[in-house]
Amino acid sequence: MASRKILLTSIGTRGDVEPFLAVGELLHKQGYEVSYSFPAQFSELVPNSINHYPLSSEIIELIESKEGRAVMGKASIWTKVKALFYLYREGQKVNKTLVEEQFKAIQLEKPDLIIHNSKCSYPTLWGLHHNTSTILMSPVPYFLCYVKGHAHIGFNKDYGTTINKLTYSISNYGLAKTIFDAQNVLPQKTKYSKSLIKKTLLAKKIIFSISPALFSRPVYWPNNAQVLGFHKRKNLTTISVVPDELKDFLITHSKVVFITFGSMVNTDPEGISKCLFSALNALDIPTVVNIAAGGLVRLHEYENNSNFIFIDTIPYDWIMSRVYATIHHGGSGTTHTALQHGCPTLIIPHVIDQFSWNDIVYKVGAGPKGIPVKKLPSPHIKALIYDLYHNTGYKEAAANISNQMSSVSQKESLIEFIEQEFPRESL
């Protein structure tokens, strides 16, 4: 019998895509016929031997637009309201295109199973139409399944049991409605009710691709929801060419900080960069600055400063295994990678789940509580960076988490959980 076909699809930034590439790599090694469907910007991440059905690049362009920067950065309430309205309006148009493209990709691939994130609306409808299961995968906690003492990740506070539960109900209803509305753009007309869609979402398998060292699965969760570890692609640990300047910098300095905002953008990259660099320089801390998407920028006064080296991109595994501590935006993958390498961590959260990772890192003792990017520049950042760099307790906690992450492999549990949809003996 031919191998089963699994399509992994995700919409969002690179942090939304990497977990699916990692799981796809594991499934490919198990003999499954794997394919992907991601925004076109990430086509180069997909191995040449694997089918990829690119989706519209417009979703990333919206995130990187001036309106996207306004929502993530410092701006007036009126500016944020206007930006949110614009993003909602344009997002509706983009989502229509994405649903149509998801439909076409799935029609072409004809998979036996789809693993997707919550931003992909069509897979749930496909599962209902074909009376088959799909699997939802989330790299963040406090989503879909209620967690005591914490509101839904979109609210990110503890409002008490009653309101906390209400935030999950509201968010899950909103997700069901988005999927319900997607039916209007499909060539094959369906009219599944919002209540059926919500019931399906809560009953389907959901993989939380999170290390239990950072978030333990609540015992009261249903069996269809599992925390199955943080996974990475194998080829992320290598780098073909390391700039000589970076090699020399790391040799010269024994206790280096790595700072990056990844794919995050903001309205004042120059002011925020100046705030951070000024504090790091005043504390005489050698720093590798990753420019990435432009949330941080090169500043002329620091380019010839011996405490700084600027790079456009670098594999996080490579650099984090060679530095003492990290300052970053708080994406799930970045947070896991930093702690996996035992790096004390200071998070400057920009959006949604990053505030939760900021809380989690602080709670497990691996770093101080960070300042949201919208509150920078701030005179308090210098004290936080000093604490990150000199408090040995953070290093001990990060090393302990690293040991926990290294000692527990959940690859087998992940594969077994997925294979429950079609047992291996039937292949």
Descriptive overview:
The protein is of the alpha/beta class and 427 residues long. It folds into 2 domains: 5-229 and 409-426, Glycogen Phosphorylase B (Rossmann fold, 3-Layer(aba) Sandwich); 237-407, Rossmann fold, CATH 3.40.50. 44% of the residues lie in helices and 11% in strands.
Low-confidence stretches: none
Strand order of the largest sheet: 3-2-1-4-5-6-7
The backbone outline, from C-alpha atoms, is: globular
Percentage of β-strand residues: 5-15%
Key features?
7-stranded parallel beta sheet; Rossmann fold; 11% strand; 44% helix; 2 domains; 427 residues; alpha/beta; single chain
Provide the fold topology:
Blueprint: E1 5-9, H1 14-29, E2 33-37, E3 51-52, H2 58-63, H3 66-72, H4 77-109, E4 113-116, H5 122-129, E5 135-138, H6 161-182, H7 194-203, E6 205-208, E7 225-227, H8 244-252, E8 257-260, H9 269-282, E9 287-290, H10 300-303, E10 308-311, H11 316-320, E11 325-328, H12 332-340, E12 345-347, H13 353-363, H14 381-390, H15 392-407, H16 411-419
Parallel strand pairs: 1-2, 1-4, 2-3, 4-5, 5-6, 6-7, 8-9, 8-11, 9-10, 11-12
In short:
This protein has 16 helices and twelve strands. By secondary structure, it is of the alpha/beta class.
